Amino acid sequence: MQALKKILTLLLVVLISLVACQSNDDASTETTKDENTTNQSEELTLWETIQEEGEMTVATSGTLIAASYYDDNDELTGYDVEVAREVANRLGVDVSFEIMGIDGMLPAIDSGRIDLAANDIEITDNRKESFDFSDPYKYSYSTMVVRESDYSDIHSLEDLEGKIAGGGATTIYSQIAEHFGAEVKTYGNAGNEAYLSDVSNGRSDVVINDFYLISFGVAAFPDFDIMIHPDLKFHPTEQGLVMKKGETDFQQAINEVLTEMREDGTLTEIAETFYQQDASKKPEEEVEEIDGLDI
C-alpha cells in the first residue's frame, strides 16, 4: 500500500512538470508570435508607411521664387511645390509641407523627419551615393547675377577668384563658386532680396544660381544695379525629388506618376505657369561643362 502511494505521488509530480513545461512552451510560442508581428510592423517600407498613414511630408523652402514661395494670398506655391502636390494626388495620398532651409533638407530626409524634399534640388553623383532621386522633372543650367554697372569685374568663370559669392552653404552653386576661388557668403533661408541687394550695393559680387530661378529674382528688383551675366551659361543641371536611400518602391511609384505627368502634358503646363517656358525639357542653349567639379 505504501509503495502504491509512492508511485501515485511520483506520477503526480511528473504530470505537474509536464503541464508546467507545456505552459512555458505556449508562452514562448505566443512571445515569438508577438515578436514576429512587431518585426513585420517595423519592416514596413517608407512607401507602405505612407500608404498606411495616407500622407507624405515634403520639405521645401518657401523662399525660392518660381520654385517654392508664398503668393500674394500667402499660399505656398511654385513649380516644385505644385509638382509635389500633383505627385501626391496621383499616388492617392495627402501632402504636408515643412518649411526649412536648403541646408537642413537632406539631413531631415536621412533622419526620417520628412519623406521627400522638393526645392529645385540638383541630381548629382555625390548626392546619389547617400540619397535616391526621382526622375528629373526640370532641366536647366547655371548662370550668375553681377552688377550691371561693371559686370562685378567678372567676364569668365576664372574671374570668380577672390570675389564674394552669396549662396547656401551646401548648394552646388556655392561649390562652383569655391571651385573657382570665390569666398561664399551664406544667408540661411533668406529670400532673393537679401542676396541680390548685396550684389547691387557691393557687399558681395555675384550670385550663382539656376537660370530660370534667378531670372525671376532679377526681374523682381528693377531698381537694383544687377543683371544676369549675358555671356556665361555653364553647368547643365537636372532637378528631382529627393528621398531616403534604398526606398526603391517609393521611388518607382513616384517615377511612374512623373512619367504620366510628362506624357499627358501636366509637367509642361505647370512649368509654363511658373517659368513661362517649358523647364521640364532640356534647354537648347549651348552650355559650358565645368571640368574637375566634384559634385
Task: Chart the SSEs and their pairings.
Blueprint: H1 2-42, H2 46-53, E1 55-60, E2 63-64, E3 68-70, E4 76-77, H3 79-91, E5 94-99, H4 102-111, E6 116-117, H5 125-128, E7 131-133, E8 138-146, E9 164-166, H6 172-179, E10 183-185, H7 192-201, E11 206-210, H8 211-219, E12 227-228, E13 234-239, E14 242-244, H9 248-263, H10 266-275
Parallel strand pairs: 1-5, 1-6, 9-10, 9-11
Antiparallel strand pairs: 2-3, 3-4, 7-14, 8-11, 8-12, 8-13
What's the mean pLDDT score? Answer: 87
Elements, N to C (H/E): HHEEEEHEHEHEEEHEHEHEEEHH
Q: Which descriptor suits the 3D outline?
A: globular
The rounded Rg comes to: 29 Å
What's the total number of strands?
A: 14
Structural class by SSE content: alpha/beta
What are the salient characteristics of this protein?
alpha/beta; 295 residues; three-stranded parallel β-sheet
Report what the structure shows:
The chain has helices spanning 2-42, 46-53, 79-91, 102-111, 125-128, 172-179, 192-201, 211-219, 248-263, 266-275; strands spanning 55-60, 63-64, 68-70, 76-77, 94-99, 116-117, 131-133, 138-146, 164-166, 183-185, 206-210, 227-228, 234-239, 242-244. With 295 residues, it is α/β, with parallel strands linked by helices. Strand 3 (68-70) and strand 4 form a beta hairpin. 35% of the residues are buried.
